[in-house]
Amino acid sequence: MKRTLAFGGVVATAGLLAAGLAAPAGAAGDVVGTPLAASGIAGKNIAALWLAEGAANLIAATPYDVETKVVAKHISTGGPAADSKPGVVPAIGDEKKSTAKSKNVNLPKTSGKVFFADGFKLVPVPGTNYKKVVADNPHWCTATSIQSTYKNLVATAGSCVYDTVNNKSTLNYWIFVPGYYQGKTPWGVYVGKQAFTHYDFDVYEDGDRDYAFVTVYNGVKLPHGGLADVKKLTDIGGFVEIDKATWEKYAPYLKKQEGEGASAKYYVWKFVDAGRLGDNVGGQGLAYNQKVGKPVFVFGYPSGSHPDGNYAYSGKTLKWSYGKTFAASASAIKAEELIGVKSSFTGEGALGSSWLVGYKNTRRLGYLNGVTIGVSDTDSNNRYDTSVSPYFDGELFGVYSAAKNLWSGSIA
Protein backbone atom coordinates (compact mmCIF):
# COMPACT_ATOMS: atom_id res chain seq x y z
CA MET A 1 0.00 0.00 0.00
CA LYS A 2 1.22 3.50 -0.70
CA ARG A 3 -0.19 6.26 1.41
CA THR A 4 0.81 9.60 -0.05
CA LEU A 5 0.36 12.27 2.58
CA ALA A 6 0.80 15.99 2.81
CA PHE A 7 1.12 17.63 6.19
CA GLY A 8 2.80 20.29 8.22
CA GLY A 9 5.02 19.94 11.24
CA VAL A 10 7.07 21.73 13.84
CA VAL A 11 10.52 20.69 14.95
CA ALA A 12 10.71 19.63 18.57
CA THR A 13 13.71 19.68 20.89
CA ALA A 14 16.17 16.90 20.13
CA GLY A 15 17.18 14.45 22.82
CA LEU A 16 19.21 11.31 23.24
CA LEU A 17 17.77 7.99 24.36
CA ALA A 18 18.35 8.11 28.08
CA ALA A 19 19.88 5.26 30.00
CA GLY A 20 18.02 3.89 32.97
CA LEU A 21 14.51 4.77 31.80
CA ALA A 22 11.56 3.79 33.93
CA ALA A 23 10.08 0.33 33.57
CA PRO A 24 7.41 0.14 30.84
CA ALA A 25 4.09 1.49 32.01
CA GLY A 26 0.70 -0.04 31.31
CA ALA A 27 -1.49 1.42 28.59
CA ALA A 28 -5.09 2.35 28.16
CA GLY A 29 -7.07 1.55 25.04
CA ASP A 30 -8.54 -1.51 23.36
CA VAL A 31 -6.60 -4.26 21.63
CA VAL A 32 -7.91 -6.34 18.72
CA GLY A 33 -6.47 -9.82 18.24
CA THR A 34 -7.27 -11.69 15.04
CA PRO A 35 -6.18 -15.21 13.93
CA LEU A 36 -4.20 -15.46 10.69
CA ALA A 37 -3.39 -19.19 10.55
CA ALA A 38 -5.08 -20.81 13.52
CA SER A 39 -3.53 -24.27 13.11
CA GLY A 40 -0.25 -25.84 12.09
CA ILE A 41 -1.88 -27.48 9.08
CA ALA A 42 -3.21 -24.13 7.91
CA GLY A 43 0.28 -22.68 8.36
CA LYS A 44 1.90 -25.42 6.29
CA ASN A 45 -0.66 -24.96 3.53
CA ILE A 46 0.10 -21.23 3.41
CA ALA A 47 3.87 -21.77 3.28
CA ALA A 48 3.48 -24.35 0.51
CA LEU A 49 1.30 -22.05 -1.59
CA TRP A 50 3.91 -19.31 -1.55
CA LEU A 51 6.82 -21.64 -2.20
CA ALA A 52 5.28 -23.76 -4.94
CA GLU A 53 6.63 -23.38 -8.48
CA GLY A 54 10.10 -22.46 -7.29
CA ALA A 55 8.79 -19.55 -5.16
CA ALA A 56 7.33 -17.94 -8.29
CA ASN A 57 4.55 -16.31 -6.29
CA LEU A 58 7.02 -14.55 -4.01
CA ILE A 59 8.92 -13.31 -7.03
CA ALA A 60 5.74 -12.12 -8.74
CA ALA A 61 4.51 -10.11 -5.74
CA THR A 62 4.33 -6.33 -6.07
CA PRO A 63 4.39 -3.57 -3.43
CA TYR A 64 1.06 -2.99 -1.73
CA ASP A 65 -0.17 0.10 -3.56
CA VAL A 66 -3.23 2.01 -2.43
CA GLU A 67 -2.80 5.77 -2.60
CA THR A 68 -4.25 8.30 -0.18
CA LYS A 69 -3.79 11.95 -1.17
CA VAL A 70 -4.09 14.79 1.31
CA VAL A 71 -4.00 18.49 0.43
CA ALA A 72 -0.96 20.19 1.96
CA LYS A 73 -2.71 22.80 4.06
CA HIS A 74 -2.87 21.49 7.59
CA ILE A 75 -0.13 22.72 9.92
CA SER A 76 0.49 20.83 13.14
CA THR A 77 0.61 23.12 16.16
CA GLY A 78 0.75 20.63 19.00
CA GLY A 79 1.96 17.29 17.76
CA PRO A 80 2.09 14.03 19.73
CA ALA A 81 2.45 13.85 23.49
CA ALA A 82 3.43 11.04 25.83
CA ASP A 83 0.54 9.48 27.74
CA SER A 84 2.69 7.91 30.48
CA LYS A 85 6.35 7.60 31.43
CA PRO A 86 8.95 6.86 28.72
CA GLY A 87 9.93 3.22 28.43
CA VAL A 88 12.08 0.81 26.46
CA VAL A 89 12.22 -2.93 25.84
CA PRO A 90 15.78 -4.17 25.05
CA ALA A 91 16.48 -5.90 21.76
CA ILE A 92 17.11 -9.65 21.62
CA GLY A 93 20.74 -10.21 22.65
CA ASP A 94 21.13 -6.57 23.65
CA GLU A 95 19.74 -6.75 27.16
CA LYS A 96 23.13 -5.54 28.39
CA LYS A 97 23.97 -2.08 27.13
CA SER A 98 26.64 -1.85 24.42
CA THR A 99 28.80 1.25 24.00
CA ALA A 100 30.56 0.25 20.77
CA LYS A 101 30.25 2.69 17.89
CA SER A 102 30.80 2.51 14.14
CA LYS A 103 30.63 4.99 11.28
CA ASN A 104 29.39 2.36 8.85
CA VAL A 105 25.68 1.56 8.58
CA ASN A 106 25.38 -2.19 8.89
CA LEU A 107 21.91 -3.25 7.81
CA PRO A 108 19.81 -5.17 10.36
CA LYS A 109 19.12 -8.86 9.85
CA THR A 110 15.72 -8.33 11.46
CA SER A 111 14.19 -6.56 8.46
CA GLY A 112 12.32 -8.37 5.73
CA LYS A 113 9.16 -8.46 3.68
CA VAL A 114 5.67 -9.58 4.57
CA PHE A 115 3.65 -11.17 1.77
CA PHE A 116 -0.09 -11.62 1.40
CA ALA A 117 -2.56 -12.36 -1.40
CA ASP A 118 -6.28 -12.43 -2.17
CA GLY A 119 -6.10 -16.15 -2.89
CA PHE A 120 -4.47 -18.89 -4.98
CA LYS A 121 -5.70 -20.79 -8.01
CA LEU A 122 -4.64 -23.69 -10.23
CA VAL A 123 -3.88 -22.61 -13.77
CA PRO A 124 -3.54 -25.29 -16.50
CA VAL A 125 -0.26 -25.30 -18.41
CA PRO A 126 -1.01 -25.60 -22.16
CA GLY A 127 0.05 -28.88 -23.71
CA THR A 128 0.41 -30.67 -20.37
CA ASN A 129 -1.73 -32.20 -17.64
CA TYR A 130 -0.01 -29.98 -15.10
CA LYS A 131 -1.67 -27.14 -13.22
CA LYS A 132 0.55 -24.52 -11.65
CA VAL A 133 -0.19 -22.63 -8.44
CA VAL A 134 -0.73 -18.92 -9.07
CA ALA A 135 -1.35 -16.26 -6.43
CA ASP A 136 -4.17 -13.75 -6.94
CA ASN A 137 -2.91 -10.20 -6.33
CA PRO A 138 0.25 -11.06 -4.36
CA HIS A 139 1.69 -8.05 -2.56
CA TRP A 140 4.38 -7.21 -0.02
CA CYS A 141 5.28 -4.66 2.66
CA THR A 142 8.28 -4.11 4.92
CA ALA A 143 8.43 -5.41 8.51
CA THR A 144 10.89 -6.24 11.28
CA SER A 145 11.43 -8.86 13.97
CA ILE A 146 11.01 -7.43 17.47
CA GLN A 147 11.74 -8.59 21.01
CA SER A 148 9.21 -10.93 22.65
CA THR A 149 9.12 -13.69 25.23
CA TYR A 150 9.15 -16.50 22.66
CA LYS A 151 11.16 -14.65 19.98
CA ASN A 152 8.27 -14.90 17.54
CA LEU A 153 7.00 -11.36 16.96
CA VAL A 154 6.91 -9.12 13.86
CA ALA A 155 6.11 -5.38 13.80
CA THR A 156 4.78 -3.50 10.78
CA ALA A 157 2.14 -0.99 9.71
CA GLY A 158 -1.44 -1.91 10.58
CA SER A 159 -2.42 -1.54 6.94
CA CYS A 160 0.05 -4.34 6.08
CA VAL A 161 -1.98 -6.75 8.22
CA TYR A 162 -5.56 -5.51 8.49
CA ASP A 163 -7.51 -5.20 5.25
CA THR A 164 -8.66 -1.57 5.10
CA VAL A 165 -9.44 -1.80 1.37
CA ASN A 166 -11.95 -4.65 1.21
CA ASN A 167 -13.36 -4.23 4.72
CA LYS A 168 -12.21 -7.71 5.64
CA SER A 169 -10.68 -8.54 8.98
CA THR A 170 -7.11 -9.27 7.87
CA LEU A 171 -5.08 -9.73 4.73
CA ASN A 172 -4.85 -13.36 3.62
CA TYR A 173 -2.02 -15.92 3.42
CA TRP A 174 0.29 -13.75 5.55
CA ILE A 175 3.99 -14.66 5.86
CA PHE A 176 7.19 -12.90 6.92
CA VAL A 177 10.49 -13.52 5.10
CA PRO A 178 13.50 -11.84 6.74
CA GLY A 179 16.28 -11.01 4.31
CA TYR A 180 14.13 -11.89 1.30
CA TYR A 181 15.77 -11.42 -2.11
CA GLN A 182 14.39 -12.57 -5.47
CA GLY A 183 12.73 -15.74 -4.25
CA LYS A 184 15.42 -16.65 -1.75
CA THR A 185 14.49 -17.15 1.89
CA PRO A 186 17.85 -17.23 3.73
CA TRP A 187 16.40 -17.69 7.24
CA GLY A 188 13.19 -19.47 6.35
CA VAL A 189 9.53 -18.55 5.94
CA TYR A 190 7.48 -17.55 9.01
CA VAL A 191 3.72 -17.90 8.76
CA GLY A 192 1.64 -15.42 10.75
CA LYS A 193 -0.40 -16.99 13.55
CA GLN A 194 -2.20 -14.09 15.20
CA ALA A 195 -2.32 -10.34 14.56
CA PHE A 196 -2.81 -7.51 17.05
CA THR A 197 -3.67 -3.88 16.51
CA HIS A 198 -5.51 -1.05 18.24
CA TYR A 199 -9.29 -1.04 18.23
CA ASP A 200 -9.32 2.46 16.73
CA PHE A 201 -7.39 1.32 13.69
CA ASP A 202 -9.35 -1.88 13.19
CA VAL A 203 -12.74 -0.13 13.45
CA TYR A 204 -12.12 3.50 12.48
CA GLU A 205 -8.89 3.24 10.43
CA ASP A 206 -7.36 5.82 12.74
CA GLY A 207 -3.97 6.74 11.27
CA ASP A 208 -2.61 7.49 14.74
CA ARG A 209 -2.96 3.74 15.46
CA ASP A 210 -1.72 2.37 12.12
CA TYR A 211 0.57 -0.30 13.59
CA ALA A 212 0.38 -4.05 14.15
CA PHE A 213 2.24 -6.87 15.87
CA VAL A 214 2.03 -10.41 14.52
CA THR A 215 3.07 -13.63 16.23
CA VAL A 216 4.61 -16.10 13.79
CA TYR A 217 5.17 -19.84 13.84
CA ASN A 218 8.70 -21.22 13.75
CA GLY A 219 10.19 -20.88 10.28
CA VAL A 220 10.20 -23.66 7.72
CA LYS A 221 13.12 -24.46 5.45
CA LEU A 222 12.77 -24.91 1.72
CA PRO A 223 15.31 -24.65 -1.10
CA HIS A 224 15.06 -22.02 -3.82
CA GLY A 225 13.28 -24.58 -6.00
CA GLY A 226 10.50 -25.03 -3.43
CA LEU A 227 8.38 -28.15 -3.68
CA ALA A 228 8.77 -28.30 -7.45
CA ASP A 229 11.97 -30.34 -7.26
CA VAL A 230 11.65 -33.23 -4.81
CA LYS A 231 15.27 -34.27 -5.33
CA LYS A 232 16.45 -31.11 -3.62
CA LEU A 233 14.30 -31.80 -0.60
CA THR A 234 15.91 -35.03 0.54
CA ASP A 235 18.15 -33.28 3.06
CA ILE A 236 15.52 -31.02 4.59
CA GLY A 237 12.34 -33.06 4.71
CA GLY A 238 10.32 -35.80 3.09
CA PHE A 239 6.93 -37.45 2.80
CA VAL A 240 5.44 -39.17 5.85
CA GLU A 241 2.40 -41.42 5.98
CA ILE A 242 -0.71 -40.18 7.79
CA ASP A 243 -4.39 -41.10 8.07
CA LYS A 244 -6.80 -40.12 5.31
CA ALA A 245 -8.88 -37.72 7.43
CA THR A 246 -5.83 -35.62 8.28
CA TRP A 247 -4.47 -35.95 4.72
CA GLU A 248 -7.62 -34.36 3.31
CA LYS A 249 -6.95 -31.14 5.26
CA TYR A 250 -3.71 -30.46 3.41
CA ALA A 251 -3.28 -28.48 0.21
CA PRO A 252 -2.64 -30.64 -2.90
CA TYR A 253 0.92 -29.34 -3.24
CA LEU A 254 1.85 -30.98 0.07
CA LYS A 255 0.43 -34.47 -0.34
CA LYS A 256 0.31 -37.59 -2.45
CA GLN A 257 -1.64 -40.84 -2.56
CA GLU A 258 -0.40 -44.30 -3.42
CA GLY A 259 -2.85 -47.01 -4.40
CA GLU A 260 -6.64 -47.01 -4.41
CA GLY A 261 -9.48 -48.14 -2.19
CA ALA A 262 -8.86 -49.87 1.12
CA SER A 263 -5.18 -50.43 0.33
CA ALA A 264 -4.46 -46.76 -0.43
CA LYS A 265 -1.75 -44.98 1.54
CA TYR A 266 -1.66 -41.26 2.18
CA TYR A 267 1.40 -39.08 2.55
CA VAL A 268 2.10 -35.41 3.30
CA TRP A 269 5.28 -33.41 3.04
CA LYS A 270 7.18 -32.97 6.28
CA PHE A 271 8.92 -29.61 6.54
CA VAL A 272 12.08 -29.12 8.56
CA ASP A 273 11.82 -26.63 11.40
CA ALA A 274 13.99 -23.54 10.81
CA GLY A 275 13.65 -22.46 14.44
CA ARG A 276 12.32 -19.33 16.07
CA LEU A 277 12.51 -16.01 14.27
CA GLY A 278 14.38 -14.20 17.04
CA ASP A 279 16.94 -16.98 17.39
CA ASN A 280 17.73 -16.73 13.67
CA VAL A 281 17.78 -12.98 13.01
CA GLY A 282 17.44 -11.32 16.42
CA GLY A 283 14.76 -8.83 17.35
CA GLN A 284 14.74 -5.06 17.78
CA GLY A 285 13.86 -3.45 21.09
CA LEU A 286 10.93 -1.09 21.57
CA ALA A 287 10.86 2.55 22.71
CA TYR A 288 7.68 4.48 23.43
CA ASN A 289 6.66 7.83 24.93
CA GLN A 290 9.96 9.25 23.73
CA LYS A 291 10.60 12.94 23.11
CA VAL A 292 10.02 14.05 19.54
CA GLY A 293 13.27 15.17 17.92
CA LYS A 294 15.36 12.02 18.35
CA PRO A 295 17.55 10.86 15.45
CA VAL A 296 16.29 7.64 13.84
CA PHE A 297 17.40 5.23 11.15
CA VAL A 298 14.61 4.11 8.81
CA PHE A 299 15.09 0.67 7.21
CA GLY A 300 12.81 -0.52 4.43
CA TYR A 301 12.32 -1.74 0.87
CA PRO A 302 11.16 1.38 -1.01
CA SER A 303 9.95 0.84 -4.56
CA GLY A 304 7.95 2.67 -7.18
CA SER A 305 8.50 6.13 -8.57
CA HIS A 306 8.48 9.68 -7.30
CA PRO A 307 5.66 11.89 -8.64
CA ASP A 308 8.02 13.12 -11.38
CA GLY A 309 8.44 9.55 -12.65
CA ASN A 310 11.94 8.98 -11.33
CA TYR A 311 12.53 5.45 -10.05
CA ALA A 312 15.09 5.85 -7.30
CA TYR A 313 14.50 2.43 -5.71
CA SER A 314 13.83 -1.08 -6.99
CA GLY A 315 12.36 -2.60 -3.84
CA LYS A 316 14.72 -5.55 -4.16
CA THR A 317 17.22 -4.63 -1.46
CA LEU A 318 17.01 -3.11 2.01
CA LYS A 319 17.71 0.65 2.12
CA TRP A 320 18.13 3.16 4.91
CA SER A 321 17.65 6.84 5.63
CA TYR A 322 18.48 8.94 8.69
CA GLY A 323 17.11 12.05 10.34
CA LYS A 324 15.50 13.60 13.41
CA THR A 325 11.80 13.14 14.03
CA PHE A 326 9.38 16.07 14.14
CA ALA A 327 5.68 16.51 14.90
CA ALA A 328 3.26 15.99 12.01
CA SER A 329 -0.39 15.33 11.24
CA ALA A 330 -2.66 14.23 8.39
CA SER A 331 -6.30 14.87 9.19
CA ALA A 332 -7.61 13.12 6.06
CA ILE A 333 -6.61 9.77 7.59
CA LYS A 334 -7.69 10.83 11.09
CA ALA A 335 -4.07 11.23 12.16
CA GLU A 336 -3.35 14.17 14.41
CA GLU A 337 -0.42 12.75 16.40
CA LEU A 338 2.14 11.55 13.88
CA ILE A 339 5.88 11.95 13.73
CA GLY A 340 7.78 12.65 10.53
CA VAL A 341 11.35 12.30 9.33
CA LYS A 342 13.08 13.64 6.24
CA SER A 343 13.50 10.72 3.84
CA SER A 344 13.54 10.22 0.09
CA PHE A 345 11.84 6.81 0.37
CA THR A 346 9.02 6.35 -2.11
CA GLY A 347 5.77 5.01 -0.72
CA GLU A 348 5.46 1.67 -2.49
CA GLY A 349 7.26 -1.03 -0.55
CA ALA A 350 8.36 1.29 2.25
CA LEU A 351 5.07 0.84 4.12
CA GLY A 352 5.92 -0.83 7.43
CA SER A 353 9.59 0.27 7.43
CA SER A 354 11.16 0.23 10.88
CA TRP A 355 12.24 3.47 12.60
CA LEU A 356 15.07 2.62 14.98
CA VAL A 357 16.32 4.99 17.67
CA GLY A 358 19.64 4.28 19.41
CA TYR A 359 20.70 1.97 16.60
CA LYS A 360 24.04 0.22 17.22
CA ASN A 361 25.95 -0.62 14.06
CA THR A 362 28.09 -3.33 15.59
CA ARG A 363 25.11 -5.26 16.94
CA ARG A 364 22.64 -4.14 14.26
CA LEU A 365 20.14 -3.49 17.03
CA GLY A 366 18.19 -0.53 18.33
CA TYR A 367 14.75 0.40 19.60
CA LEU A 368 11.73 0.42 17.31
CA ASN A 369 10.15 3.86 17.64
CA GLY A 370 8.00 4.07 14.52
CA VAL A 371 6.75 2.33 11.35
CA THR A 372 6.22 4.07 8.03
CA ILE A 373 2.55 4.56 7.13
CA GLY A 374 2.98 7.14 4.37
CA VAL A 375 5.25 9.48 2.44
CA SER A 376 4.90 13.10 1.40
CA ASP A 377 6.26 15.69 -0.99
CA THR A 378 6.27 18.66 1.37
CA ASP A 379 8.05 21.17 -0.91
CA SER A 380 5.96 20.37 -4.02
CA ASN A 381 8.95 19.53 -6.23
CA ASN A 382 7.47 16.15 -7.28
CA ARG A 383 9.92 14.20 -5.12
CA TYR A 384 8.94 12.53 -1.88
CA ASP A 385 11.00 14.02 0.94
CA THR A 386 9.31 12.88 4.15
CA SER A 387 8.05 9.68 5.77
CA VAL A 388 5.51 9.58 8.61
CA SER A 389 4.73 7.18 11.44
CA PRO A 390 2.28 6.96 14.32
CA TYR A 391 3.71 8.27 17.58
CA PHE A 392 4.56 5.29 19.79
CA ASP A 393 2.85 5.91 23.13
CA GLY A 394 1.49 3.85 26.01
CA GLU A 395 -1.45 2.63 23.93
CA LEU A 396 0.96 1.11 21.42
CA PHE A 397 2.76 -0.56 24.31
CA GLY A 398 -0.61 -2.02 25.33
CA VAL A 399 -1.01 -3.62 21.90
CA TYR A 400 2.58 -4.88 21.99
CA SER A 401 2.02 -6.31 25.49
CA ALA A 402 -0.99 -8.28 24.27
CA ALA A 403 1.19 -10.03 21.67
CA LYS A 404 4.63 -10.35 23.26
CA ASN A 405 3.96 -13.24 25.64
CA LEU A 406 2.08 -15.57 23.29
CA TRP A 407 3.67 -18.83 22.20
CA SER A 408 3.38 -19.96 18.57
CA GLY A 409 5.29 -23.22 18.23
CA SER A 410 6.35 -25.20 15.18
CA ILE A 411 4.34 -26.13 12.10
CA ALA A 412 6.99 -28.58 10.91
Structure characterization notes:
The protein has helices spanning 40-60, 199-204, 244-247, 277-281, 394-404, and strands at 9-10, 31-35, 62-63, 87-89, 111-116, 119-124, 131-136, 139-146, 153-156, 175-178, 190-198, 212-216, 219-221, 238-242, 255-258, 265-270, 272-275, 285-288, 295-300, 319-324, 326-330, 335-342, 354-360, 365-371, 374-376, 386-390. It is mainly β and 412 residues long. The radius of gyration is 22 Å and the shape is globular. Strand 6 (119-124) and strand 7 form a beta hairpin. It folds into two domains: 9-227 and 272-404, no CATH class; 237-270, no CATH class. The protein has a six-stranded antiparallel β-barrel. Strands 4-18-24-23-19-20 form a six-stranded mixed sheet, with helices on one face. Strands 1-21-22-26-25 form a five-stranded antiparallel sheet, with no helix packed on it.
